[in-house]
Amino acid sequence: MKSLLAFLTIAALLPAQDAKPAAVAGVPAECSPGRLRMTAVEPREAPLGGTIAIRLDGLNECLTAWPSPEFVLHLSGVPMPALKPILPAAGDNRLQFALPVMAASRPAWNQVFAASAAGSAVQEEWRTRMLTIAVSPGPGQRPYPSAVAGFGLRLLGDLQWRLWLGIAFLLLVLLAWVATSSNALRDSSPPIAAAGVKPPFSLARCQMAAWFYVVLCAYVLIWMSSGLQPALTASTLALIGISAGTGLFAAAVDTTKRNANLEKAAALERQLQEVQGADERLKGELAEVLAQLAPARSEGFFIDILSDANGLSFHRVQMLVWTLTTILIFVWTVFASLVMPEFDATVLGLMGISSGTYLGFKFPEQSAPAPPR
Q1: Which of 112, 132, 134 lies closest to 33 in space, CA to CA?
Q2: From CA 356, how far away is CA 360, in angstroms rounded?
Q3: Domain count, the chain
């Protein structure tokens, strides 16, 4: 008797095999996750801005019961409500979605790019991401069952990629030409520069040029891939500001030191003219000041930016290392997520400290070795 009661209890709890799936709130039973199933995605690889078709078994019955559905596309687990479906013609079970990057869908796309990069879902090259894909009957609803593992999303077409590489290369060549043929990235020239003598390269000006190049190339890359003008984050503006401020203050320090040496040299010359017998001490001081005013000669790019008159300077090495590290993180983030990076305050603080240390050491720093006495 107990066995019979247990059997009847279990049978009552189990749903009948021909029972209809429970309808989701606001969604007809014909469109519930128990009735539709995703079986294919066409094509298996599509460009950003292209169109994909998703095959859903039972879609025709669903559209008969629900003429104005609210299907939502999910990419890598991120719902994309801004991407509205294109309903099929009668007899077709393919639901189409266009994949543009619009202003309304940009935050969701940022999550998709970040999720695919964090999951190392990169196929062959960074330009193609393997994404999971699903469709749900509406916002906040559970996606339909799927037999599709995923599909490839091309972030940048071959023509766009080659065009961007060409632009980046031409900008680099132009920057190198400006650096070698002019004094734009070199220390300020003295009032009377020797003919044919190029001043040393300036670390601060080279840092400013490097950030200008990196941010400009990143801006063009994001614009070419998404079609939208990328927003410059506060971190990007801070990095540009730090590099520009460092270059500005470094030039101001050089000018101040040069003017002070000019005034000191003029005062010493007046004293020598006033003192009969040409005091040797004053002559030595004048020679030292004139040595500071003498035009420094470039000894090669890395020697120029890492050394002063006394040799290799650690504060210059520190500034260069932190600049290269931050640029590497910046470039990696742009290629991975196609957005301007947002750096932590500590990273910006380290950049500011290294630049401030460099500027602090420039005050006592000599531009030329003092002559022997």
Answers
A1: 134
A2: 6
A3: 2
Last residue of a domain, one of 93, 128, 155: 155
Residues 118 and 213 in one domain: no
Tell me if residue 76 falls in helix, strand or coil: coil
61 vs 34: CA distance, rounded Å = 13
Task: State residue 372's pLDDT score.
Answer: 43
Residues 137 and 178 in one domain: no
Contacts of 296 (CB under 8 A, 6+ apart): 187, 199, 200, 309, 367, 368
Are 178 and 289 part of one and the same domain?
A: yes
Quote the CA–CA distance of 194 and 371 in Å, as a whole number: 19
The whole-number average pLDDT for the span 10-31 is: 57
Most confident of 60-69, 163-172, 199-208, 292-301: 163-172
With cut-offs at 50, 70 and 90, classify the pLDDT of residue 172.
Answer: very high
What's the predicted TM-score (pTM) here? 0.74
Residue 264: which domain range?
159-362
Distance CA 281, CA 264 (A): 14
Are 185 and 216 part of one and the same domain? yes
